[in-house]
Amino acid sequence: MEATADMAQTALAPVTDVSLLGLIMNAGLVVQIVMLGLMAASVWCWAIIIDKAILFSRSRAAMNRFEQVFWSGQSLEELYRSLSQRQNYGMAGLFVSAMREWKRSLESPGRSFLGLQARIEKVMDVTVQREVERLESKLLVLATVGSSSPFIGLFGTVVGIMTAFQSIAATKNTSLAAVAPGISEALFATAMGLVAAIPAVIAYNKFNAEVAKQQARLEGFADEFSAILSRQIDERLAA
């Protein structure tokens, strides 16, 4: 009984180190696991946020460059030859995939234009979906962390407060100096959950909107390019 009281008294000893490391080191095992897990989730989310911010910035710049070249009046054949030798994403990838299907039909022995328009549109639809999947990759991690981190932090807080109350019952010491350290360590878990969740939710919403914008640009270009190829198909059929 005396050993239990001594352990409880030690758990309720005033904590002078209120730094991040001190609060983690003085917390219970379960709360420590929760805190470390939330810290790892926060670092992971920030890595994804930085990576996605760079990806979307580069993707917007690449689309702008391609549109300038495409609408400059350059021959479609020349543009295709310059792009087909390297890996392409975004509008460039959409253009190359459509032109590849166009050239396969022209170079086939039968040179049949029947169904060519539908095939080109199907190829472009698949390319748009692949590009959207590339842009959306890892966004589910942000959504998961943003929705679950507050509850994980709350779980750590509940466990920490339960431990503090058990120590209070064992020592029968209800003074503020004895109660405050344990409760502050427990509440720190909730704070860490919010620190991990808030940037994740904001970034997820921002990146989702950016994906929608870029998808709309890709689909708009696909419709315009499909109309251009449709006119060329009609001209060849009429010739």
UniProtKB/TrEMBL annotation:
It is found in: Cell inner membrane; Cell membrane. InterPro entries: ExbB/TolQ_transport, MotA_ExbB_proton_chnl, Tol-Pal_TolQ. Keywords: Cell cycle, Cell division, Cell inner membrane, Cell membrane, Membrane, Transmembrane, Transmembrane helix. Its main location: membrane. GO terms for cellular component: plasma membrane. The chain crosses the membrane at residues 20-50, 139-166, 186-204. It is a multi-pass membrane protein. GO terms for biological process: bacteriocin transport; cell division; protein import. Coiled coil: none annotated. Residues 118-219 form the MotA/TolQ/ExbB proton channel domain. It holds the Pfam family MotA_ExbB. Part of the Tol-Pal system, which plays a role in outer membrane invagination during cell division and is important for maintaining outer membrane integrity. The Tol-Pal system is composed of five core proteins: the inner membrane proteins TolA, TolQ and TolR, the periplasmic protein TolB and the outer membrane protein Pal. They form a network linking the inner and outer membranes and the peptidoglycan layer. Belongs to the ExbB/TolQ family. This is Tol-Pal system protein TolQ.
